[in-house]
């Protein structure tokens, strides 16, 4: 029993206060706004660099910055929508807006990858390429290296948050560090050695884009369709339920599954058959409130019964 208390999620005293939650929300908004502002500034600089160099690797990086702005708007819209609950139109809240927004974000990034892949392949087939001079090379090195450095520090800042939307920005900043570094190296190799290294670098960036964001889509779709919680988390819930009240005779069912970024929990407990309805109701209600205080739980449903030998009460196959 003592070992179970080592898990932080059962320690109710560790829950953040209202002031801490407000401060955290303010910091998250600051991170999102800062990311959007810097994305806009860097995009303008990379547009100029693309016009000056006409390098496929630089253009691919510029298109990525454009999609950063579009995707940033999508994520901002989801965060804004979640702050305005409507219990009549959305009875269980809008937490699903986060993974849905991230899926849209990832889909847009995947489209970028396919477009760059097609254009780079066309350049390799037709063997069309631009000649570089010292001025173009300086533009390319200055813009790409500056973006990589700024994005690296933004990535470190956004990774300090647990909010899914802010962490999506962190992943995007990390992606920008990789793409700008690869793009810069390939463009410089194209200038110094072979011209075809520029479109090859753009193809590498495109493949990385498609792979990274396809993985992101699969993770968030899994959260939306209702993936079960890990066995150790179910064990924690069972421990918490069993020690809630001594009148609980059996625990029939404990389920926890994702429904967005948090868990829905379903619990069936068995109480004495002769217990007054008011007392049974109070036990079930307080257990539900206790479960919903856990930071990972969005909604808990507690069903009280007097026996556990009955058939399943829901559809056998769902």
Automatic annotation (TrEMBL):
Residues of the Cation efflux protein transmembrane domain: 35-224
Gene Ontology cellular component terms for the protein in this record: vacuolar membrane
Entry's transmembrane regions: 31-51, 57-79, 100-118, 138-161, 173-193, 199-218
Gene3D superfamilies: Cation efflux protein transmembrane domain (1.20.1510.10), Cation efflux protein, cytoplasmic domain (3.30.70.1350)
Bilayer disposition of the protein: Multi-pass membrane protein
Keywords, alphabetical: Ion transport, Membrane, Transmembrane, Transmembrane helix, Transport, Vacuole
Subcellular location: Vacuole membrane
Keyword check for NAD: no
Pfam families assigned to the protein according to its UniProt record, in alphabetical order: Cation_efflux, ZT_dimer
Primary site of residence: membrane
GO molecular function: monoatomic cation transmembrane transporter activity
Domain Cation efflux protein cytoplasmic: 240-305
InterPro entries in the record: Cation_efflux, Cation_efflux_CTD, Cation_efflux_CTD_sf, Cation_efflux_TM, Cation_efflux_TMD_sf, CDF_Transporter
Family statement: Belongs to the cation diffusion facilitator (CDF) transporter (TC 2.A.4) family. SLC30A subfamily.
Task performed by this protein: Involved in sequestration of excess metal in the cytoplasm into vacuoles to maintain metal homeostasis.
UniProt name for this protein: Uncharacterized protein
Organism listed in the record: Brachypodium distachyon (Purple false brome)
Lineage: Eukaryota, Viridiplantae, Streptophyta, Embryophyta, Tracheophyta
Gene (name only): LOC100828577
